[in-house]
Design goal:
261 residues; alpha+beta; Fumarylacetoacetate hydrolase, domain 2; 6-stranded mixed beta sheet; 5-stranded mixed beta sheet; 7 helices; binds manganese (II) ion
Length: 261
């Protein structure tokens, strides 16, 4: 960092401190910046508004059969979480098949179909009983994974960041408000590749429910409005190659489609 950028960073932080920021390092909307970073937004069905994304949390191994296929014991150990960068979101409109680029560096690119919960209320140490009050809405999402890199890095006890948290690794459909859909505690979840069923399960087979995920996650992080949670994938994850079309479904949500290009 050169002197000029150091000065600008310091100036921005000082302005934020003077303005009484709620979070250290978060500049106020009226702060002067040398360029603009676009916000990540997810369309909300039946609304003119969009949902602004703050953080993307993902839960690992939340279906017993998937935990086994990943080589771990599916007994009810505490859930574990990782994050994707906010701009990993790829919005996909219902009724379309969006082009999704095959990423660099991998030769084993996997799909994981998942229910996503989006929060409009935050908090710490949120009780399970009231956790769903924090959910604004739900969407259908894909946790796309460079499986070869995830596995190799894990074997070497290195962070699996580039296996999971790369550009456009989080395709997602529009948000449906929980006030209209109710909670997603059961219902079919499936994924097809080129019309052939690959993943097929029921949301009630989750080891940790969405309410429990929110409660557990809020013990590790202060949750905030705009946080979204990918709730884990069922068994039978697998690879796709260029030209493949993925179609996925959760009862009560429109299907999500992407084509690997
Ligand atoms: Mn996943």
């Amino acid at each position: 960092m050169d002197r000029r950028s150091l000065f600008e960073t310091t100036a921005t932080l000082s302005l934020g401190a003077l303005a009484g920021c709620a979070m250290p390092g978060v500049a106020q909307p009226n702060a002067k910046t040398p360029f603009v970073v676009p916000a990540t937004l997810i369309p909300i069905v039946g609304s003119e508004q969009s949902f602004p994304v703050r953080r993307i949390y993902c839960i690992g191994r939340n279906y017993a059969a998937h935990a086994r296929e990943m080589g771990s014991d599916p007994s009810r150990e505490p859930p574990f979480f990782f994050q994707k960068p906010t701009d990993a979101i790829q919005n996909v409109a219902p009724g379309t098949v969006a082009d999704h680029p095959y990423p660099t560096l991998t030769k084993n690119y996997h799909y994981e179909v998942e229910l996503v919960a989006a929060l409009h209320l935050g908090g710490r140490n949120i009780p399970t009983a009231s956790a769903l009050d924090h959910v604004y809405g739900y969407a259908l999402g894909l946790d796309m994974t460079r499986r070869d890199l995830q596995r190799a890095l894990g074997d070497e006890k290195k962070p699996w960041e580039i296996g999971k948290s790369f550009d456009r690794s989080a395709p997602i459909g529009p948000l449906h408000r929980a006030s209209q859909t109710g909670p997603f505690t059961q219902g079919a979840i499936w994924l097809k590749v080129n019309g052939q069923t690959k993943q097929s399960a029921d949301l009630k087979q989750m080891i940790w429910s969405v309410a429990e995920q929110i409660s557990k996650l809020s013990q590790a992080f202060e949750l905030m409005p705009g946080d979204i949670i990918y709730s884990g994938t069922p068994e039978n994850v697998g690879p796709v190659v260029r030209g493949d079309v993925i179609d996925c479904h959760i009862d009560g949500l429109p299907n999500l489609g992407i084509k690997i290009v």
